[in-house]
Amino acid sequence: MEHAFLVALLLTDATVRVATPLVLAAFAALYSERAGVVDIGLEGKMLAGAFFAAAVASSTGNPWLGLLAAVAASVGLALVHGFACITHKGNQVVSGMAVNILVAGLAPTLAYAWFRQGGQTPLLPGEARLPQIHLPGVEALAGIPVLGPVLGPVYRELIDDANVLVWLTVLLVVATHWVFTRSRFGLRLRAVGENPAAVDTAGLSVTRLRYQAVVVTGVLTGIAGAYLSTAHGAGFVRDMTAGKGYLALAALIFGKWRPWPTLFACLLFASTDAVQVRLQGVPLPVVGVIPVQFIQMLPYVLTVLLLAGFVGRAVAPRAGGIPYVKER
Amino acid sequence: MPESPQTPPALETRNVNKWFGANHANRDVSLAVPKGTIHGVVGENGAGKSTIMSIVYGYLPADSGAILVDGRPVAVRSPRDALAAGIGMVHQHFMLVDPFTVLENVLLGAEGGVTLAAGMARARAELARLARDYGLEVDLDRPVGDLPVGAQQRVEILKALYRGAEILILDEPTGVLTPQEADHLFRILRALREQGKTIVIITHKLREIMELTDNVTVMRRGQVVANLATAGTSREELAELMVGRKVLLRVEKAPARPGAPVLEAAGLCVRDGAGVERVKGVGLTVRAGEIVGIAGVSGNGQSELLEALAGMRPLAGGSVRLRGEELADRPARFTARGLRALGVGHVPEDRQRVGLVTGFEAQECAILGHQGDPAFNGRFLMDRSALFDRCAAEMDAYDIRPRDPRLPAANFSGGNQQKIVLAREIERNPDLLLVGQPTRGVDIGAIEFIHRRLVALRDQGKAILLVSVELDEIRALSDRILVMFDGRLVGELGPEEADERRLGLMMAGVVDAA
Amino acid sequence: MAQEAAQGVAQDVVGRGFGRPGDVPGWVGYALLPLLNLLAALVLSGLVILVIGENPLAVLTLLVTEAVGYPEAVGYTLYYTTGYIFTGLAVAIAFHCGLFNIGGEGQAYLGGLGAGLVGLALTGWPWPVAALAAVALSGLFGAVWAAIPGWLQAKRGSHIVITTIMFNFIAASVMTYLLVDVLIRPGSQSPETREFDPGVWLPTMDRALGWFGVAIPASPLNLSFLWALACCALFYLFLWRTRWGYEIRTVGRNERAAVYAGISPSRNIILAMAISGALAGFVGVNEIMGVQHRILLNFTGGVGFVGIAVALMGRNHPVGIVLAALLFGVLAQGGGQVSFEYPTVNRELVMVIQGLVILFAGALENLFKPQVEALFRRRRGGPQAEGRA
Predict the structure, then answer these.
(1) Which Pfam families does its entry note (chain A) (predicted)?
(2) Between residues 261 and 290 of chain C, which touch chain B (CB distance below 8 Å)?
């Protein structure tokens, strides 16, 4: 019993670690897509973030400068996306694709040229990585009778020593909820994704709003990338994002473009990852051993089923994917 | 309203010019709207009246010219500038965010702070006042998409007033309203005038001009042709100014000699994409050699009825007999393809979105719906020269310009596009022709041509079902007039008994007018 | 991202393609502007090369020499070109139906499975039989893998871009499972099948030309190159000279008009996707039957994504697609060789160029359009009448 409890805790902990970059990227896309700019370039922006975070952290020894570089690189790419899709009314899917392929080439090219380690950055020492936050009172809590044995491990495994970016992500989720429901920016963002002409005739600039949304997307994907290479990992490796940008996109759709359901989808998808490691080769009752690949593809299958309306229905922002052109 | 020469006009434009590519949409447009009046801007489709008002509202940039508010020149570079100068606009297609509540829609762009709470409370109080003063009641917490059209229009007016508009521009505000709803709108507008607001209303309906406005500006082909006091003019004069010559209000035609029924429909029900029943038990008969017109305010089910009869929408119930043969229970034949094969032609209401593929060459458009015709098809490949010849012949017969079958359909004018569609459908020699809005956005010369063609087809003994929201067109062409309201046929009239008042009441669903 | 959005977006791509004479000469639209875009992409690529400390001109010169400078290199270049023609056509036919098929990668992967199963099964058969069977089965597998997202778009309204992305990942998982657990050569450590019987291998071009007494150096270029060229011709005839192609194009440009004309959008969406998937699936013939002679992990290596660039560059027309595929073939072959010569350059540099080409030829295709068109209008003496409604 106690063992099962601990396993559950460890699984939850693993889920949170995997979910963090997903949440960051999915919420990044939430801003962009709710404003009517489809972004399938999350993968590329994250990868750029991961590379520049590791490269700068490795060169300067300062992970915060790395984080800054990650955000700068990712915002730069977001602006390229904006320039193509908002200013020049280009195809948003094509532009996102271009960003993904460009970075998939650029990151290892630069890594190869700058560090000469076969497309990786050097392994980061502890102080060049983003810190975990150590909270006091682990022993004190465990000492409390009755509740102690339950809360103690929860506190120890889940809450204490979480990375600073995990906390930032928690903050982001709450803040995003507030932005979308209570703030002027959120109201305008939602409006520009549904009917840009209404925003235009209300005296607001569609272009400016969409650029703002795209920049937020850039900031958050940059942080997501930095998490991968300087918080969760200890350096940049080739193809580090491994499809997480697309998975985040799937989570956003699975969450029907709304903050809380998107968070839930990220946790669900991340948990399949945690579970899959545990289930490797373990026979289950009735079904026997499930090949690990089937668990891996579960998020994608679920998203397809959702989009097909077999499990609920996801309605995208109405103006998503369409460049804004004034009517005559 | 007394007008003192000392007071500068509330709104004035001076020599405004606007080009769309090579099209000179506004040519030295100058007009002046005195404060506290209702001013009409009339003109045919494409006369440039919406363009000039979009420029005043800052939605489109002018190429040259000046805009003055209360005698002072203002630089209107965006709707923001216009709003700041006290100009509000209600667009023809409402600029509303459907999933938002009324309150959120009003607030958008005028939130009054980084957070919403305070602004919402303020707006709620202010809107309650506006609603009381002008009869602009709407439920502030309903999503706008759930509201009827009339209420959505009131939301648009509220949006403008909440932003402190002193000048309110309305673009074709009655196009989607019944005459009775339009009267309600007019009462609101008069109340606004009493409070000293200035109103500009863009319309092509002369009834509204005569009934509502103090002054009127007439536009034709991008130019102002007259500025008149409404009291000193007449509908006939305005009509003549609009089109530039005497208008032929009647189409010359002999009395109809109806033959055997071609189309007999009974109990027809049609649902739209969202599953809402739009046609609720319609029965009608069209005989050979007659034109049956369906009148109604747009959005009352006539579009759905026409598309269903053309096989573009599934029937939700009822029977359709073509030359006595029941089709409704034979879904394999009751399709667009099957009906075409049975001799049904269809000129759809919207040529650009339905009747043509604007990116295709004219010759490709000329076989739309007949792409499987053996005349153009070998075993595998199409016969491109047969296609070309066919299209060239139709272009000659219908005087379609430019006479180039390889030109993309998008490069033809509205009237010539419509003739491409008409030629394609009429030249197949259909027994039944379904026609929707045949002259919408078509220049006057083409209108006469199209009307004459339809009458000629009738005289060849073909059956024609005509749907139009233009009452003049319905009255000029139809041998019998059916009126549709809320998905039902509410009455039938002969062309002589169908005066505008009677038709208007029936179109509003007041059945005893019949 | 409603369906219309996708339609609109893809339509847009098609809409600026062929056959729309404006007031500037046609060649500006389909030759000058793409060349300018390509040039912009190359200039930026040169900057990247500069950043990593090499001379861009020297690198690009070497790249081109290594791709077309000697007969063997040409063989390699055309081998890469073959795959890109297949995926470029695949993306293009979907575009013509208003669909954005991002799933070429997964469809090619599954096509390889189809071709590979033929290779495994037909031991001892003559190669022409195996080749035909491989074309059929790889096309079928690719078609099915693309038709499912097509069906989901047509009947359930699922956004095809997202579904095809998801199907890429699902295909990768399925293939990994099959190669690790099912098809793996017994006793092998690496996840791949046994090698096929050499008798069923698709002959390489040097072997095939050898039968006619023509000697060219050995390269992976094989007979599927000819099949790719044939597919280009069939593509043109099908799309512009048959009524089935007419119907697909109608659906792509104006779905309501298609319904009006009695053309079923859902049928044509599924059909176009099936053809698209089959074309992508043919990559499997080139790679598996022509070169690898066994099924192995990730043999597609991004060919599906390059197909997007090829279709965009080639303006969705077979002639353009062949030229664009050739360009990307040069990049793939030359780029690989450059990495041997320059210690600071590796293969991924090619992806940088690919990404930039997609950006400039696709998303930023209108970057230079206003200026260039204005230039031509001025030269021809003022605006011409447009006569638009």
Answers:
(1) BPD_transp_2 (PF02653)
(2) 261-263
Per-residue DSSP letter, B8: P
Residue B188 has pLDDT above 80, yes or no: yes
Contact A84, A90 (CB under 8 A): yes
CB B42 within 8 A of CB B203: yes
- Using CA atoms, how far apart are residues C143 and C155, in angstroms rounded to an integer? 17
Q: Is residue A31 part of a domain?
A: yes
- Residue among B392, A83, A112 at smallest CA distance from C49: A112
Tokens coding C313: 């560059």
Residue pair C99/C153 in contact (Cβ under 8 Å)? The answer is: yes
Residue located via tokens 């007031």: C23
The SS3 assignment for B64 reads strand
Does A256 fall in a domain? yes
pLDDT of residue A328: 61
Two structure tokens written together for A27: 């919420």
Q: What is the 3-state secondary structure (H, E, C) of B153-180?
A: HHHHHHHHHHCCCCEEEEECCCCCCCHH
Q: How many CB atoms lie within 10 A of CB B270?
A: 25
Number of domains forming the structure of chain A: 1
More confident residue, A153 or B317: B317
- For residue A321, is it within any domain? no
Chain C contacts of B355, Cβ < 8 Å?
257, 260
B-C Cβ pairs (cutoff 8 Å, strict): 101
With tokens 């009237």, the residue in question is B415
Q: In this structure, what are the phi and psi dihedrals at residue B26, rounded to the nearest 5 degrees?
A: -130, 130
Neighbours of A283 (CB within 10 A): 10
Q: What is residue C8's predicted lDDT score, i.e. its pLDDT?
A: 38
pLDDT at position C4 is 38
| End-to-end Cα separation, chain A, in angstroms | 70
Element (H, E) at B219: strand B215-220
Domains (range + CATH), chain C = 3-376 (1.10.3470)
Q: Could you say which residues from 203 to 262 on chain B have a Cβ atom under 8 Å away from some Cβ of chain C?
A: none
Q: Which residues of B234-245 are buried (b: 16+ CB within 10 A; e: fewer)?
A: eeeebbebbbee
Are the C-beta atoms of B34 and B9 separated by less than 8 Å? yes
- Among B60, B95, B115, beta carbon nearest to A183: B115
Average pLDDT (B55-63) is: 93
ipTM score for this prediction: 0.90
Q: Give Cα B173 distance to the centre of its chain.
A: 11
CB C351 within 8 A of CB A100: no
Tens of pLDDT, residue by residue over C68-103, are: 999 999 999 999 999 999 999 999 999 999 999 999
Query: Residue A183 has what DSSP assignment?
Result: B
Contact: B336, C250; criterion CB under 8 Å: no
Q: Which residue of C has its CA nearest to A319?
A: C1
pLDDT digits (tens, 9 = 90+) for B337-375: 999 999 999 999 988 889 999 899 999 999 999 998 888
Q: Is residue A226 part of a domain?
A: yes
Q: Is the pLDDT of residue C122 over 70?
A: yes
DSSP character for B456?
H
Closest CA of chain A from B205, distance in Å: 21
Nearest residue to B89 (alpha-carbon basis) of B192, B150, B161:
B161
Nearest Cα to A262, choosing from A250, A272, A273? A250
State which residues of chain A have pLDDT below 70.
1-2, 311-313, 328
From B216, A171, A104, A4, select the one nearest C347 (Cα to Cα). A104
Write down all domains in chain B, each with its CATH number in brackets. Answer: 11-243 (3.40.50.300), 259-343+433-514 (3.40.50.300), 358-429 (no CATH)
Mean pLDDT, all residues of chain C = 88
State pLDDT tens for residues C263-280.
999 999 999 999 999 999
Rounded to whole angstroms, how far apart are CA atoms C74 and C64?
A: 10
Q: What is the pLDDT of residue B221?
A: 83
